[in-house]
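Severity: low
Component: inverse-folding endpoint
Summary: output formatting inconsistent between runs
Steps to reproduce: submit the following structure tokens with default settings.
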């Protein structure tokens, strides 16, 4: 295991930044999934799975938050 990866695993903030998007995805998929399943209407007969819209949004939010954190630290330092 690379030394940088070992260091990142020991930092609580970096570990949380990796775990929080996964927890949000699981929360909205399995806990709130039943109530959100019928919320997307297409007007056609085909039923749309809302996870197809949810996953890219959560991934983009995770990338943006992670990038903004290090950009802010670079400006401050």
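Observed output (run 2 of 3):
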């Amino acid at each position: 295991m690379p030394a940088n990866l070992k260091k990142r695993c020991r930092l609580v903030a970096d570990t949380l930044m990796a775990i929080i998007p996964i927890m949000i995805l699981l929360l909205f998929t399995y806990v709130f999934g039943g109530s959100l399943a019928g919320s997307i209407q297409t007007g056609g007969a085909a039923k749309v799975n809302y996870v197809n819209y949810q996953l890219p949004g959560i991934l983009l939010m995770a990338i943006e938050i992670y990038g903004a954190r290090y950009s802010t630290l670079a400006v401050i330092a």
